[in-house]
Amino acid sequence: MTSAKPFNVEPIDATFGAVITGLKLADLGEPAFAALYETWLEYALLVFPAQNLSNEDQITLARRFGDLELELAELSNVKKDGGLRTDDDDDMVKILKGNMGWHCDSTYMPVQAKGAVFTAHVVPAHGGETAWADTRAAYQELDAATRERIANMSAYHSLYHSQKKFGETKEKDSEYFGYGFFGQEPPLRPLVKIHPETGRPSLAVGRHAYGIPGIAEDESEKLLRDLVDFTCQSPRVYQHNWTAGDAVLWDNRCLMHRACTWDMNEPRVMFHSRIAGDPESEFAAHA
Known about the structure:
Layout lengths: L7 E4 L6 E4 L8 H14 L1 E4 L6 H10 L3 E9 L14 H8 L16 E8 L7 E5 H7 L2 H7 L3 E4 L1 H5 L24 E3 L1 E3 L6 E3 L5 E2 L6 H15 L5 E4 L6 E5 L3 E5 L9 E7 L3 H4 L5
Parallel strand pairs: 2-3
Antiparallel strand pairs: 1-2, 3-13, 4-15, 5-13, 5-15, 6-12, 6-14, 7-8, 7-11, 9-10
């Protein structure tokens, strides 16, 4: 445990991540925030147990890291009337299950997200964890031949593509239809991404990526799947077992993440604030 900062930093047993204690996120002074931002860039994932942030506190915290792409989104299988969403044909269930695939947020948008603040309000007795994977360490551990092969490759990213297997289509009138389904051409993103603040290279892959130009579709699919599989191996992964009141902050520019399965006969209520990416570094054209 390191103690040179105005809070406690306990590194997670992985290539990234730390548990942060000894501070209150809802009452964070400027010097402590500056140290926290530096720690975030170093570890990419920060876990804050027992913060019990209100929605307003969460939005305020996320906004300190930059403009917000999404101020507050509820990711929940609980309906407004208190009933549970358990039907695979339910539009929100499709999104919840889609999020169980490894991905980075908003790579399908013209500007990829910078990061996110995520909080747990209601958690199931078993399952429902969130996992992250270190795409920096994955790139670093690639063999030289693979690095050379992918150095100038790009892939398209699309939410339409990644949600097709869950029954989402452009034509379907869906409860979730809107965010990410704007009808825009899919952005084309390099497979190797350089972090704009740390300068570290990482892999830019995940469930939204497909269709590498210049190679056959089946070859593209296999290469992208292999890169995700390689990334998501120990010690490059961490899976967080939530306790209600926990908050997590992650860097979307160098980590993939996914939700883990749970029995949807149990409620799970999470709140997500998405930090907007810098258009100078996170923009990708569609060709």
